[in-house]
Structures are given as C-alpha cells and as structure tokens.
Amino acid sequence: MTTPVRRRGRTLRQRLLGYITSAVNRLRQAWAILTGAQNRLLAALARIRPGRSAGSGQRLRAAVADFNTSLAAFNRAAMAMAERWAATDLPVIYREGAWTLLDNALRPTTRFSWTARHQAAVTGLSAQYYADLTSRIQETLRRARAFLRAAQDEARDPVSARIDTARLRADHSLDTVVYANNSKHSVEAWASAAVTWQAVTTANTAAARTALDELGTEWVEVRDGKGCGWRDHQDPDKADRTLRTVQDALAHPTSHAHCVRELLPRLDLIGRTDIRTGALL
User: Fold this and answer.
1) Better-scored residue on pLDDT, 53 or 18
2) Neighbouring C-beta atoms of residue 36, cutoff 10 Å
3) How many angstroms separate the most distant Cα atoms in the chain?
C-alpha cells in the first residue's frame, strides 16, 4: 500500500483551504455591497411618508439611484470573482490535485503536464462551475430588482401612513440565497458549500485522471470522513479506506458539499482484475 507524502508539509486539503477561503471572502464582499445598499434604501424609506411629503419623491429618487449604483457594483464584483475562479483558481486546483497524487505515488521522475485530456477535463469543470456561479448571481440580481420595485410601490402608495420596512426586508432578504427547494441559506453558508464542492471535485478529478494517464493504474485508495457514503453522505456504501476504480472515482469525486475525500494511487494493483470496486482494505 502506498504511504502518502505531504508536499511542502501540508495536505491537499490544507492547500485547497487557501483557495476556498479566498473565494468565499470575495463572494461575501460582493454580497456585502448589495446588503449594504438594501440597508441604506430601507433606512431612507423609513423616513418617507408615502404620497404626503413634498420632498418624498426627491428622497426616493436619490435612494433608488444609490441602490442601482450599488447593484451594478455588486454585479461587477461577483462576476469578477466567478471569472477568476473559473479561469485561474480552478486550473491551479486541478494541478494541485494531480501533483498530490504523483507525490503520494513516490514517483519523483513522473511529471504532470497539461495534456489534451487534462485540458478537456478542467475546461469542462470550469465551464460548469462558472455557469453555476453566474446563475446564482443573475438570480440575486433578479431578487434585488424585485425588492426595488416593491420598495418603490410602497413609497408611492397614497393610502399607507408609513412604509413597512420590516416586511420588505423579510420578503426580500438579500443577505440569503434561495435553493431549489425554496429553503433560504446565508450567503456565507452557500458560498462555502458551493466553492468547497467545486474545489474538492476538481482536485479529485485531476487525481483520478492522473492515476490512469500518468501512472497507468486503474485503482485508487479512498480516504474520507468516517461514515461518509460514496455517492452521497447517507449512502450505505461507505467510502473511507476502500478501493475504487478510476472510472468510479471520476463518477463520484466527492459526495457532499464539505466532503474531505482524497484519492491515493495504488500502483501495486496495476493489472489486477480480481478486485471489486468498493472493496474494503
């Protein structure tokens, strides 16, 4: 069995953490622009008497202009993060996964290079994850514009004595993201889960591909959290300390958002056909 070595004294997980933390911080900073704008607009609305004050219209226009300016700034910051993540960070993370696999193989003469297969793999991942991030950004812009329309409607209502800013905030909570099942999560929780999933999947895809292409082995050893399932966290097929084919590993490089899965090469199993994928060590 191979014994993992740790390049520069750090595990792959520790090296990925720097990229993940930086990406999450950039997303949090982008969303802070938006939530700050929402807070300012709500504060301005709290001082407006709908349809009654002569200066209400002017104050509303100024508040709306400030919100729209901030909305554009949010879009620029969030899109810049998505572009850097897809174009720069994910390829580096892919290479880190490949390098770590080679380090653990104790093959100092074997080098990683950007072959056509590696390029195709990281290009596909980057395109998918860029689309995922930009879709979330566009959905957030849609929700922000819906909030702005609702705020303007409240401010122009000649019947209301005051604007219910608490209800506006509750109905249009821009400091959260909404999942497909309509559950709401904090921006930081979503960003951490999404970016970690993308980083670990990318690194492990690189490791599995490198095991086959550079080392010629179809088998990897899986290290994972205790009790973590192979396809998803609750899968009764447990992942830790099992043997998997490269194809199985490529199909399931990670099983959940904060998965700690890592793949080790098994050069001693090259050519073996008597092993079942998922076999326990």
Assistant:
1) 18
2) 14
3) 84
Round to whole Å and give the CA distance between 218 and 274.
13
CB atoms within 10 A of CB 56: 17
**Are 71 and 144 in contact, with CB atoms under 8 Å apart?**
yes
Cα separation, 238 vs 150, whole angstroms? 49
Residues 242/247/250/254 CA torsion (nearest 10 deg): -30
DSSP output for 245-258: EHHHHHH-S-SSTT
What is the spatial distance between Cα 191 and Cα 183, in angstroms, rounded to a whole number?
Answer: 15
Phi/psi for 184 (5° steps) reads: -105, 140
Digit-coded pLDDT (tens) for 67-123? 999 999 999 999 999 999 999 999 999 999 999 999 999 877 788 999 999 999 999
Residue 57, sorted as left (phi over 0), alpha (psi -120 to 50) or beta, turns out to be alpha
- Burial (CB < 10 A; 0-12, 13-18, 19+), residue 211, is buried
Here the tokens at position 77 are 């910051």
**Other beta carbons less than 10 A from residue 158's beta carbon:** 7
Closest CA to 249 of 260, 267, 238, 263: 263
Vertex 175: Cα angle to 68 and 142 (nearest 5): 45
Which residue matches tokens 């209800």? Answer: 167
**Can you give the pTM of this predicted structure?**
0.91
Give the rounded distance of the alpha carbon of 244 from its chain centre. Answer: 26
Other CB atoms within 10 A of residue 167 CB: 11
CB atoms within 10 A of CB 231: 13
C-alpha–C-alpha distance, residues 226 and 253, integer Å: 16
Query: In sequence order, what are the beta bridge partners of 186?
Result: 176
